[in-house]
Amino acid sequence: MTDITTPLDMEFVHSQFPGLRDDWVFFDNAGGSQTVKGAVDRITEFLFERNVQIGGSYAISQAAAEALMKGREAGRTLVNAERPEEIVFGPSTTVLLQTLAAAMRSQFHPGDEIIVTMADHESNIGPWDRLREFGVVVKFWPLDRESYRLRLSDLEPLMTERTKLVCVTHASNILGKVNPVAQIAEFVHARGAKICVDAVAYAPHRLIDVRAWDVDYYVFSLYKAYGPHAAMMYGKYELLRELDGLYHYFYGKDKVPGKLEPGNPSYELAYSTDGIVEYLAALGECQGVTGDRRAKVEAAYAAITRHEDRLTERLLSWLNARNDVRVIGETVNEDSTRVPTIAFKFDGVDSGAVARAMDAYGIAIRFGDFHSRRLVEDLGEDGDNGVLRVSMVHYNTVEQVDRLTAALSEIVSKVAA
Questions:
Q1: Is the pTM of this model over 0.85?
Q2: In Å, what is the CA distance from 222 to each residue of 89, 134, 164, 201, 359?
Q3: pLDDT tens profile 308-338
Q4: What share of the chain has pLDDT > 90, as a percent?
Q5: 272 and 229, same structural domain?
Q6: Of 241, 276, 311, which residue constitutes the final position of a domain?
Q7: Is residue 237 located within the same domain as residue 373?
Q8: What sign does the CA torsion over 258, 261, 267, 270 have?
């Protein structure tokens, strides 16, 4: 039986990330995480042993096709999709959402409505906003300023019989709050619309279950979830079939997901997904879990959540104890519904000056709006070079958080003097 209090084996975790070296502390993981060794091994294996085009009758081409399918199978396991064909690969979440918008365009008619959120990354706003050119009406679901939450009571009056799609973030890359996508999906579906979820800021931290949540489209970047610079999109198979193809004319509606991967995906990067899932499964085994890969991945994310909750609490406690800084978003991690992405601002201090000063301490953080410009501007936090953001993942430690806060204390006292 699994001990639910078993901590992560940090020695094992750190051994799987060769980039964790030279005493640097990486607290800019929401911009891009370190890459797990197994993902790099898959890339190298493909390029050295399988590097040909798929579709041939000869053995190496068959091996290349097998690698691509292993990548899709790993993606299926990671998000709990029904079938591997529901996994679409692309270079980034930004590109995949542009791909989806282009492939859905013929489904919209003048006067049809799309709802986006003010709390989202621009990747899940801009592609939909550009459909105004074709007569689509785009509405903004506002963020409740007091609670920093997206409320269904604010969404309800925006929805009409012409609403076709609601686009929402699973977790804001500024606020860090996990949105209840299953509840939102149920609400949206009951009113005859579909839902598209940007999960970039969620996927590195929590278990994904697209079937349990009944989401229609779900997109995130692998390079922020321990893989190389690539991304994946889940879509319900029947919905993917109905999308317009973006490849050659002879790629018919049933050629899923190939019709949405013009020029074919990067085979080696798709294959690397298998290395990410292998790592997560190994973490699950460290928790004493046996069985299939999905069960091990579930155990891994449970352990990751427990560890990241400690990191979140450590940093929030330090910030909350000061009277010269404000957290952008909720100041507590209620029921583990806050990922360890924490944005804040010191009173009267330029955020850029603090982040740049941190370089001398060997700690990587960042400042600005993180491509959630509409949110930062809507909150009135765009002055003084925007917000500071510390984005942690499970290979970070409490000791590193303490190193960060000690450095922040020194830096702010000097900058504010």
A1: yes
A2: 10, 32, 28, 11, 26
A3: 999 999 999 999 999 999 999 999 999 999 9
A4: 94
A5: yes
A6: 276
A7: no
A8: negative
